[in-house]
Design brief:
148 residues; alpha+beta; Alpha-D-Glucose-1,6-Bisphosphate, Chain A, domain 4; 3 helices; 7 strands
Length: 148
């Protein structure tokens, strides 16, 4: 049994609407994203103050079905081990069932043994289940602001 971090939600909106929202990373995660977030083989960098900075590469991009980011590099100001996210995969899988669209989010490699797990658990839970879901259902997410 895997202990990777997972969460999901279901909405009335279409798979295409969910897919587009996932790829609007500035709309739900952070307005401070450098790079392209919606095309295969592209890289982007996320930064939150001096707390967290990471570089992602989009390694899977299947319209209306799946997006996978590979974490190329990562820095946390609050952990001793800076390798906890490096080479992990962040997966967004979209499916339709019972007239609803389901987004399944998995951060493969983010496990309870990690120093950052509790903080990352809370952060991903908010960004996926609150901010991304709000972007899908209301057209407005709750990303970190550009200037903090």
């Amino acid at each position: 049994m895997t202990k990777d971090f997972k969460t999901s939600f279901s909405v009335e909106q279409s798979a295409n609407e969910v897919f587009n929202a996932v790829n609007d990373v500035r709309g739900w995660w952070s307005e401070k994203i450098d790079g392209v977030t919606d095309a295969l083989d592209q890289e982007f960098t996320y930064q939150r103050k001096d707390l967290h900075k990471c570089t992602m590469k989009i390694v899977e991009f299947v319209p209306d079905k799946k997006v996978v980011w590979l974490v190329l590099d990562n820095y946390f100001s609050f952990t001793q081990d800076q390798s906890e996210w490096k080479d992990t995969r962040i997966e967004f899988e979209i499916s339709e069932t019972g007239g609803k669209t389901v987004l399944s989010f998995t951060h493969r490699g983010l496990v309870p043994e990690h120093e950052c797990y509790n903080i990352c658990f809370d952060a991903w839970t908010f960004y996926i289940n609150e901010s991304l879901k709000s972007l899908v259902t209301k057209g407005v997410g709750q990303p970190n602001p550009l200037v903090e």
